[in-house]
Amino acid sequence: MNKPAKLLCSAAVLLAIGSLAAPASAADEKALRRGEAATKRLMGNMDKDKDGKVTKEEFMKYMEAEFDRIDQNKDKTISSQEMDAWRNSMSYGD
What is the DSSP secondary-structure string of 14-60? Predict the structure, then answer.
């Protein structure tokens, strides 16, 4: 195979491979941005010393506070009803 034919063949292969990756839809992009924003907010809420990282201690304190918030009747357990109420109260920025 001569050089121009090899180049043409290589270009065709690259175009074919590129077409296998489906472009993200606008809805997919919106969901991705929403998820990234939610992660940034969550990290900001947990990262008490604002160093850009969450330590195990920061994480555990945050989760303990969340548990206490979800445990509406303060019996130190979370029932399925309490979990449902918490899930239904979540705002996902829609």
Answer: HHHHHHHSPPPPHHHHHHHHHHHHHHHHHHHHH-TT-SS---HHHHH
